[in-house]
Amino acid sequence: MPGPWHSLTPHSHDSSDKTDSALESSNRGLRVIGLSFAILTVTAVIQAVIVAFSGSVALLGDTLHNFADALTSVPLAVAFWLGRRAATSRYTYGYGRAEDLAGIVIVVLIALTAFLAGYQAIYRLINPQELSALAWVAAAGLVGFLGNEWVARYRIKVGKEIGSAALVADGLHARTDGFTSLAVLLSALGAFLGFPIADPIVGLAITAAILFVLRDAAREIYHRLMDAVDPTLVDQARTVLAATPGVRKVGSVRLRWIGHTLHAEVDILVPHTLSLVDAHAIAVDAEHRLTHEMPRLRAVTVHPDPDGPEGVDHHARLP
């Protein structure tokens, strides 16, 4: 039903479909996290083997960094798992917001990565260190960069497809880790060419790149926390509602992301001469059209208002 009671007892034809779709998105997110965790772990293991051959302390630090970063998949996996739980009388919208909390953790980790990369670059600029076993160092940097960049592209792609800002942010986090490994590769190349100063200079450049990634990730999570949506989604919803037979005007349209699903609250104006049953039918039709036209829209509350007669304010406070 489109009124207040409708949000409690939605029609079964869209309720089960949307729930199944949301669960599939969560399952897909968990698969991405599991596979990327495995790739990052293998990458770190390969680097650890190279560390054993080269004896490089710098590579040891980068390897431990990559192991730690692989573990950052844990809070996001917990968030997706929580998001699958049904709503309760306390958490009436479910647990989708856990993704936003995980996103905050990821943004903090990216900021920490930028700080450590900058600190290390400045330290090496003040205290130059000679690199040894350059071939092994370069190989470790290349492995770290390729592994993290593949994970970054995978997470960002799927995160955008299922509407998960936290998964996109985690993909950006993996990209920053790839940058730090790339710094190792470029530093080894600079030392090989006779420019040891290239090590801290490249480190500073990588720090700047990480700060740009941090800006994008923080903005993405901030928008979710503030219930921001793409204005084109609002325009799409208005177009669908306006095309619904019986809808004379479209009032307010409010959309919000909860995890990786959209929720909507909309007002429509229908002829004031209609019976309650007929107005209800129009509202139900509007809801169905919205849920079919907007794939990630999981729940809709439609409020019909009477349009007319002229000069009557139906929302005026009664004496």
From TrEMBL:
The chain crosses the membrane at residues 32-58, 64-82, 102-122, 134-152, 178-195. Residues 35-226 form the Cation efflux protein transmembrane domain. Residues 1-22 are annotated as: Disordered. One of its GO terms (molecular function) is cadmium ion transmembrane transporter activity. It is a multi-pass membrane protein. Residues 11-21 have a biased composition (Basic and acidic residues). Its main location: membrane. One of its GO terms (cellular component) is plasma membrane. It is found in: Cell membrane. Residues 231-306 form the Cation efflux protein cytoplasmic domain. One of its GO terms (biological process) is intracellular zinc ion homeostasis. Keywords: Cell membrane, Ion transport, Membrane, Transmembrane, Transmembrane helix, Transport. It comes from the Bacteria. InterPro entries: Cation_efflux, Cation_efflux_CTD, Cation_efflux_CTD_sf, Cation_efflux_TM, Cation_efflux_TMD_sf, CDF_Transporter. Belongs to the cation diffusion facilitator (CDF) transporter (TC 2.A.4) family. NCBIfam families: CDF. This is Cation diffusion facilitator family transporter. It comes from Nonomuraea soli.
